[in-house]
Amino acid sequence: xxxxxxxxxxxxxxxxxxxxxxxxxxxxxxxxxxxxxxxxxxxxxxxxxxxxxxxxxxxxxxxxxxxxxxxxxxxxxxxxxxxxxxxxxxxxxxxxxxxxxxxxxxxxxxxxxxxxxxxxxxxxxxxxxxxxxxxxxxxxxxxxxxxxxxxxxxxxxxxxxxxxxxxxxxxxxxxxxxxxxxxxxxxxxxxxxxxxxxxxxxxxxxxxxxxxxxxxxxxxxxxxxxxxxxxxxxxxxxxxxxxxxxxxxxxxxxxxxxxxxxxxxxxxxxxxxxxxxxxxxxxxxxxxxxxxxxxxxxxxxxxxxxxxxxxxxxxxxxxxxxxxxxxxxxxxxxxxxxxxxxxxxxxxxxxxxxxxxxxxxxxxxxxxxxxxxxxxxxxxxxxxxxxxxxxxxxxxxxxxxxxxxxxxxxxxxxxxxxxxxxxxxxxxxxxxxxxxxxxxxxxxxxxxxxxxxxxxxxxxxxxxxxxxxxxxxxxxxxxxx
Length: 481
Known about the structure:
With 481 residues, this protein is α/β, with parallel strands linked by helices. It has helices spanning 11-23, 27-36, 38-51, 68-88, 106-114, 116-120, 122-127, 157-171, 187-194, 215-224, 241-251, 270-276, 292-296, 321-324, 326-338, 353-362, 387-392, 413-425, 443-452, 471-474; strands at 103-105, 138-139, 154-155, 177-179, 203-208, 230-235, 259-262, 285-290, 309-314, 344-348, 370-374, 381-382, 401-407, 431-435, 458-461.
């Protein structure tokens, strides 16, 4: 390290500088700050760097848009970051880097081990050299019938990740976040050993929810991870997933869960919705991807009224609740009207979304900042049949981001003009995306938007009838990025 005289500066000040750089995720400056002197490094700067290492731009190997040479360099640095963390658990680094970790992102480690450049070059050889040779675990693929060539050994990624994770969790007492690798269920076995070490765990990100089907793991998490308040999972294919997930959620300390999200099929239904009510006072973020049965269970969330962010994604054909399930439709509306702290709502592939949201939009207590109605082909609502919904948008003058996807078929002049007038009234919009709903827009509508929505930073509008005459008004949007 360079010898820089910083002895005149109190350690508290050096620590504050490192903390600020860490909060800004200014990795280059923070790294150079550490290299300036040993005193700086020892005054909290190393701690600050590894505390946010999970947000490093090196993660996931950087961007594919970079030149190939730069991609190779970043992937080398990516592997060195992980190698350094693992080596620190054996006391073979200048500082105990693992000790300062807050998030153990095993999904990122899995991405590294599966990366082609990692496997095909010297990066892999260097990574598993020395002390890390013990983690070089391989499997022999099955020989294909009719072939004589000997199959090439390949990395036993799942067991490597489990072994490295075990080493890190032994030496990272401050971990508050844990993510499971893609296409794996490492945590369904590892958590039986790791959970007692994760006493500060707040965020658990599962690829496969099956770990929570194990009574032992559920009990260990309840006992040893009392701070857990954020649960996220990708999928859970078991038919009894709803019961097991409900058992885990209801077994937590009441009103502890702040965030819950599932990204794909998890068979969530009535039991999980009822269990989520036990956290209704503190649950702020709820993002659900639901099959038809799950959508029909939404009316059971009556206790979840402190939500600020709500996202509902229908994973398959869902009936028009207003027409086919009116009792459930009214229950969901009654629930949504009580969620007066809502700031962001996103509904995807839910034909009833506009009707469900009218009461929300007209509620004077609710001040939305973001609203999105997304739809795939065949799931869009008909714009011509939802004039009341479009008119109601004008009541949410706090909106900064709006996305509407709807079928414009049959929409007449009055429908389009009413929609555009409402949009023009939302002066605070910074982001506006219109998909298909604007298919019959022309220059007049777009020019009106450009003249009235001067705060826009992002604008996407489909349409088939625009001419070059729009560019004069669009040029007036000085904040467009």
